[in-house]
Write a structure and sequence with these properties.
about 35% helix
């Protein structure tokens, strides 16, 4: 195992430890970065979720860990198979299943055992038969080739130490013509170099943010077309609350990221 691989594994372990602790706590996160604090409804509304969506999700599924609402741009169709990268306690996966209305299938993948267990309990409690959760890393998805219609993700890819691998894996599992609908943070300008080595800012969805140009290049090199990356100016208000007084809104923003695997010839 080379040095780069070791460093990547250390980063994953750091992320896994933090999010595992949140899952074990069985409650929404505290008022630190990449978290909405304890006011779940207000934070979810700021991300773009409706009161109906909040009411529809199983109790305990929303841990306030997102930075947008990927389902708002997903245009889910009946019968589709949806894959949620970094599914956590299952919030977006359950809402995707609701949109499928008993058709299709939703697969959530998360690398944190405690999160997968929590999501499975939530699914069982809600009686959702077309949702399943798998333990795995988003850089090496436990999903077969060309079996997915739609890939969603919410503020997770920034946590990956190997984002090009994530984009390649998303491309691999998608059927021809399949698409991605992602909410994530992007860097508005180069981040201070010291931030990249700060564990709290890494696990807090700050240090891993990349520029629009870098994200676009990663998706294009993986084979995606029709790439659209749209920073959400309104996200500045809640991002500033992640670390009050630190001016985070000058450096990062939530963005909507869309792309498509080319249709079959």
């Amino acid at each position: 195992m080379n040095t780069s691989t070791l460093l990547q594994d250390e980063q994953r372990q750091t992320v896994r430890a933090r999010y595992g602790a949140m899952a074990e706590a069985g409650a929404a996160c505290g008022p630190e970065s990449c978290c909405g604090g304890t006011d779940t409804k207000a934070y979810a509304a700021a991300l773009g979720y409706s009161s109906d969506e909040l009411a529809a999700a199983p109790t305990g599924a929303n841990l306030n860990l997102g930075c947008g609402n990927p389902l708002a741009i997903a245009s889910i169709q009946p019968g589709e198979t949806v894959l949620d990268l970094g599914s956590g306690a299952g919030f977006d996966a359950f809402l995707a299943a609701r949109q499928l209305a008993g058709t299709g299938r939703v697969i959530g993948v998360d690398m944190t055992p405690a999160m997968v267990s929590k999501a499975r309990r939530n699914a069982a409690g809600a009686g959702l038969a077309n949702v399943e959760f798998r333990l795995g890393e988003i850089e090496a998805l436990p999903v077969a080739d060309a079996t997915i219609d739609l890939v969603i993700s919410n503020c997770v890819i920034n946590l990956s130490p190997d984002k090009p691998a994530v984009y390649r894996e998303a491309f691999r599992v998608l059927r021809a013509g399949g698409r991605v609908a992602i909410s994530d943070v992007i860097a508005l300008q180069p981040l201070p170099p010291e931030w990249r080595n700060q564990a709290d800012r890494l696990t807090g969805c700050i240090a891993g943010a990349e520029t629009v140009e870098t994200v676009r290049r990663g998706l294009a090199e993986a084979g995606f077309v029709g790439i659209r990356i749209t920073p959400r100016k309104e996200s500045r208000e809640f991002i500033e609350k992640w670390e009050p007084g630190q001016g985070l809104g000058d450096y990062i923003a939530s963005a909507v990221i869309e792309a498509q695997k080319p249709p079959a010839a």
